What we know:
mainly beta, 2 domains, four-stranded antiparallel β-sheet
Amino acid sequence: MMNYTVGGNFYCSNGIREIVRWDGNQWQPVGDIFHSALNYVSDMIVYNGYLYVCGAFSTQWGDGASSIARWDGISWEDIGGVIDDGIADLEIFRGELYVVSGFNTIGNSIAAEHVAKWDGNQWYSVGADFDIPGTPLTMAVLNDELYVGGYFPTMNNGQIFNSIAKYTDHPTSIEDVNGILKISVSPNPFTTQTTITLSNSQLSTRNLQLLLFDLLGKQHQVTYTIEANTIKLQRGNLPGGVYFFQIISGNEILATGKIIVQ
């Protein structure tokens, strides 16, 4: 017989509150986690063999940990300390657990604007840039792409998104790709122009292209020139923010990197 677990905002006459388990005959408590009477559970999901529960609550540990915890079948576990707001939704994407809501920090004071991910051991920011006011409230995965919805008319300093966006997990640092091409970027951050220097001048004879993406995976058209072993990139009308680039030749990615436009 299957067991069912239910979460929400309720208090039963037998003292069970916020989260309960149906064992086929009666409702049973699921440990003792909640520290405050002002609690609710907004979502639950099974990830890597644990039941993860999120919402707006402080926990029994009394260390400030709030809004998310996991159940191993016997007891509750803290998974990262202080979160400065509740968590609205959980979703598994490419083997990692994503969370959204109005928080600005997560875990051990990690800066994460409204969206973060957990790999089973630690928290990471995903670099979202929501304009004020703006709060993501829900997520869904379709065709191996993560969609985020809520209330955020604009993102990335005024770009219109109409409260739904698609997240693309592009590289977040400069690195070698297949050992083909090493690069440096200067100045970075920049205001009007930056120069990407290629380690191999012979590559300048190939048909190179530069592709630029913002934090949500949207591609931007940019003006650049290739001279010897350098690519000079003009800011043009790019809004300020963080962008990721790829240097490609045909279908081959030669290098990736990050730039910051001030």
